[in-house]
């Protein structure tokens, strides 16, 4: 049967008289068209209900794969550098131990004040006062400030400051004020000094 004859039969076909029960007698082109339409519907349904969920699952698996690869690379790097990191940690802990030993305990603060007084006297300075302030709690340590005021010659004051900075306990110096006294070469030094006490976990819990 020629294509022209099939097209003529389609044009002459009364679509209102079509009966599905008589589909076998329909023109061949119409049957083929219906078969194609059924195949399209089946393909669409299979894609929507079977393939699409698999595609979503594949996309999620690919994202998970990338995340696992990133974690693997990170952990591989950490494992490769673990010996070096342990050495660095040991060095930091040793350094921390040295620094903690340089921090006076609360009972050692009066001894530190005596050391500062001796440093001033060794440099022939007159001590007006060395006065403790209230301690200031910080997150990991307690700050113990105190005011210092001494009088003497310029070079001796410089030697005194250097001596305080080189004490075996950590002392930081702040808010310097150096003013000349009336008559002579005497200067008055006023400054704020701070030392620090380490706050242990036990002390924080109390």
From TrEMBL:
Keywords: Membrane, Transmembrane, Transmembrane helix. The chain crosses the membrane at residues 28-50. GO terms for biological process: type IV pilus assembly; type IV pilus-dependent motility. Coiled coil: none annotated. This is Type IV pilus assembly protein PilO. It comes from Modicisalibacter muralis. The lineage of its organism: Bacteria, Pseudomonadati, Pseudomonadota, Gammaproteobacteria, Oceanospirillales.
